[in-house]
Write a structure and sequence with these properties.
About 30% of the residues are buried. The protein is built from 10 helices and 4 strands; from the N terminus they run H-H-H-E-E-E-E-H-H-H-H-H-H-H. A hairpin with a 2-residue loop joins strand 1 and strand 2. Strands 1-2-4-3 form a 4-stranded mixed sheet, sandwiched between helices. Helix 3 packs antiparallel against helix 6 and helix 7 packs across helix 8. With about 300 residues, it is mainly alpha-helical.
Length: about 300
């Protein structure tokens, strides 16, 4: 007699297996496409990065949903039999095997890490924002804190605020200060802190080297998008480059690359072409996950 173990634990375990497979394939694709992605305008590139980070979660959930609703899977679940059971059916497997226990434990650890990262990041940002609020004063629509360094940043996830050091106000001239503020307002309006947290959380299962590269490129695209936002706000690209050069003495965060890309002209069709290429890969990835969801799990976790 065939036993069907499709409890909530089975669903979580199957989802986790799909998430691992989707994350690995997505990380490898990102490495292959990273140079082409650099040709896309930063604001569009940042959106593509978010979609790349989100796709493993999205497609793994869809694949699991179809695995437990085989009547909707059509040809994505190959025809096969278990004894007298030959009609479309849910995956037939057991979580009582060593493999099943390992899958569930891995899934639990991952979910705990994921929620731990989210909660820890939210609490850390909340503490930082409260602390900065206590040691800063309001000036127009940004806050000023005492520091001799030239510093400015946007802090907070759900209700971000812009903070500028007194050293920046004293050191930069009025035009340069406008550039810095326009850049930080760009981060605020785009909710870049929240975007970074989402990207970091959704790539936890990536190959570590690929993940570091992806997150560095993701952060760079956000900075470049805000540089372009500042140039549009002040109407002077040369002034933005001059301000970046001034800040490069304090911070070496790939400023030279940001200066070069600020002067580049990005072809709008490149984003559409890459979007089409990614859409094709996502379709293939979805088909692969649907095939693997059923066949692979029955092979790895047989009923005993």
């Amino acid at each position: 007699m065939i036993e069907l173990w499709w409890s909530p634990a089975a669903v979580v375990g199957l989802w986790f297996g799909n998430m691992v497979l989707a994350s690995v394939t997505m990380a490898l694709l990102y490495v292959a496409l990273s140079r082409r992605l650099s040709r896309v305008a930063p604001e569009n590139r940042n959106v593509l990065y978010l979609l790349i980070a989100l796709s493993p979660l999205l497609w793994s959930l869809c694949a699991v949903a179809l695995a437990f609703a085989p009547e909707w899977a059509f040809l994505l679940v190959p025809s096969h039999c278990h004894g007298n059971l030959c009609s479309p059916h849910e995956p037939v497997f057991s979580l009582k095997t060593a493999g099943g226990v390992g899958v569930i434990l891995s899934a639990v650890v991952f979910v705990v890490l994921l929620f731990g990262l989210l909660i820890n990041s939210w609490l850390r940002n909340r503490r930082l924002q409260r602390l900065m609020g206590q040691f800063s004063t309001m000036a127009d629509d940004y806050r000023v804190f005492e520091s001799g360094g030239v510093q400015a940043w946007c802090a907070g996830l759900l209700k971000p605020a812009v903070f500028v050091s007194q050293g920046a106000i004293d050191t930069l001239d009025e035009a340069q200060l406008r550039v810095v503020l326009a850049h930080e307002y760009g981060h605020l309006s785009r909710r870049d802190n929240l975007r970074r947290l989402v990207a970091a959380s959704l790539t936890l299962l990536w190959v570590p080297g690929c993940r570091r590269r992806f997150l560095a490129d993701f952060n760079l695209s956000a900075e470049q998008a805000c540089d372009r936002n500042a140039a549009a706000a002040v109407g002077n690209t040369a002034l933005v480059i001059e301000t970046l050069s001034r800040l490069a003495r304090e911070h070496g965060d790939r400023v030279a690359q940001r200066e070069r890309d600020l002067q580049r002209t990005f072809a709008p069709f490149e984003a559409r072409r890459l979007g089409g290429l990614l859409s094709l890969f996502w379709l293939l990835q979805f088909v692969l996950l649907c095939l693997a969801s059923h066949q692979l799990v029955e092979w790895l976790l047989p009923v005993v």
